[in-house]
Amino acid sequence: MAAGFVGVVIGFPVQAATLSQPVAPVRPVTDTYFGTPVVDPYRWMENLKSPEVQSWMKAQNDYTRDYLDKLPERDALIKRVESLDNASVRVGGVQLCGSRYFYFKLTPKDQTPLLYARDGLSGEERLLADPQVLGGGKGRFTISEFYPSPDGKLVAVEIAAGGSEEGVIRIINAANGHSLADTIDRIWGASVSWDPGDKFFYYTRLQKLGPNDSPLNKELDESSYLHHVGDNPDKDVVVLSRKTAPALGMVPTDSAYVSITPGSPYVLGLVSHGVKNELTLAVAPADAAAKGAPVWTKFVDVDDDVTGGAVMGHEMWLQSHKDAPRFKVLHLDLDHPDITKADVALPPSDLVVQGISTAKDGVYVEAEQGGISHLLRIPFNPFKVLTPAKTTPVSEVALPFSGSIEGFSTDIQHDGALMRLAGWTEAPQWYAYSPSADKLTNIHLEPLNPTDFSGITSVEVTAPGADGTPVPLSIIYKKDLKMDGQNPCLMEGYGSYGISLDPNFDATRLALLEKGIVIAYAHVRGGGENGEDWHLAGQKLTKQNTISDFIACAEYLNKQGYTSPAKLAGRGTSAGGITIGGALTQRPDLFTLCIVNVGVEDTLRMEAGPNGAVNTPEFGSVKDADGFKALEAMDAYQHVKDGTAYPAVLLITGANDPRVDPWQLFKMTARLQAASSSKNPILLRIDYDAGHGMGSSKTQRDLITADQAALLLARAALVPTK
């Protein structure tokens, strides 16, 4: 590996940091799992309120901040990233309710998106909600989500503070922007569903902990409530929970949601099982639910492999991977809900079904193949008379270019759909689809991003996996780049929950690309790019495939001349921390830099945090033998070896992260600093006003982008080019 980044480097001088990194004391704690002892040298760091932990993390961050601030390219990168980020207006989450359009909008003067509305496309745009105003206090607030009523007269807005994902619901009059008195707390993903009469809605709420309850119980028994506008939320009635619907067989880690579709005589009860994609579904008469006394009839359980659905009147469409790894679409009658008698509205094909929704004219199916989105339409038909000789007509909507549908919405009271289409080098635009004209029209809600990507190209390739499995790999780079192995490269990998890394447009990428950095996305197993089989092939006991695929993609980039180990950075975010952590500990020679962005590194201790128990369906639990075996194998923290020449590592966390506890990054930092035999820096970057992700505000995201790029360029410059 290259020498440590201190002193004189090829091409430019670097001032050594004046601060020092504190050495974390080792206080071993031994746990025994199924007869296997596991030593944890830094368990004491899990107490984030400890003055010792606070002092250590502050000193680490001060050192990192001093180090990064002195990188030669950083200041110029910040200016370039900010200029690119501020060159456009971004619009997201467009919904049409009644005659009113609602959407997020981020302008150059904003740090976080604001909520806007307009009456018809030609109507005047109005600001509805500024999170700073709604938050009503000091500090930074963000809008997590918004939920308009079916007629567009009211909108429920979910806001959170300081990067936290737990927030409150406020209700706004969409005609004048005035806030109602209603304020509902303990919200984490409310999934508000309005009754068409605007008088009440269903929402999901965290339980209220008592003074003697463990904080680990915070995310357990998340239940669905009925709220009448103007009522005291403390008096809201529970309509679906583990306690009120015992026949559904819910467990504490399950979450309950209730939704109603205008025109349907039924409400739908949805039970999610932690992070498991497969759902339990139940149905109840809407009039009984409106009185707070629904009687639930279960018609879909986990074994039916249903991951989503949409309702129209008395009918429902379901996406399922039962005997269909790339999914199929089923149809059934809610008057007699029996999934064993469901029709196949869309049989499995080469396309991977990603979502379904209903509009007035039919069912819309989002699908993808090789990372490219496809949109299918199934017109409403008398499904009950279908026979093998009578199949449902399915048509494909022609998209203006090959890319990814980043945003999509339909409304049961309107024909057609709204969608945001983008690509790696194609700026996003919002389109409306008219089924009568069979045409997509740009509705010009989002100005075209002016950033010039004409000198940039992207390719989709496959890298041979360790077991021979082709692994999809997306690569973005300057058109005139020489494939001589001398290019810096940043490769991202994820591979969990069946989530795909679809093509998307980010203008700030250009700041890296014009510096000659190759940007790559490894579509490793554990993701959803090739369907459910691809997901299961990187889960629990098969998680090594995720790591091996990431390593295989790195080797491909090196072999094809895109980069070389002395210039390659790998990055993993959130659950992608398992991916990059495994690659770092198994093949430290492949990288000059590894970036762990709010990443999971100590999987054996995930269940020690509030968000741990709900993740056991994806990674396993230490409470059973196979779960321990899987978690121990993917635990990067436990696989750090003393005396190993590790590359430079940048570990990033937000102090308010509710999903991946900051101590995961603290412990990994301490372990790497103690173990590495190289002089390569191990840096811990902490944002005290951020939660999960790369920062909630525009400035936070820009700074972290510049920090990572500057560090990569500095590392790549350590080895002279040919």
Please explain how this structure is put together.
Helix content is 17%, strand content 33%. The chain is α+β, with helices and mostly antiparallel strands. The protein has 4 domains: 7-84 and 451-716, 3-Layer(aba) Sandwich (Rossmann fold); 89-190; 191-304, no CATH class; 305-450, Methylamine Dehydrogenase, Chain H (7 Propeller). It is globular. The two termini are 17 Å apart. The model is unreliable at 1-17 and 382-389 (pLDDT under 50).
Produce a short descriptive summary.
The protein has 722 residues and is of the alpha+beta class.
Number of domains: 4
Mean pLDDT: 92
Return Rg in Å: 26 Å
CATH superfamily of the largest domain: Alpha/Beta hydrolase fold, catalytic domain
What's the CATH topology label of the largest domain? Rossmann fold
- Number of DSSP strands? 40
What is the end-to-end distance? 17 Å
Helical segment count: 12
Model regions low in confidence, pLDDT < 50 over at least 5 residues? 1-17, 382-389
Structural class, by secondary structure, is: alpha+beta
Relative helix content: 10-25%
- The appropriate CATH architecture of the largest domain is 3-Layer(aba) Sandwich
Strand order in the largest sheet? 33-34-36-35-37-38-39-40
Shape field: globular
Largest sheet: 8 strands, mixed
Share of residues in strands: 25-35%
Question: Briefly, what CATH class of the largest domain?
Answer: Alpha Beta
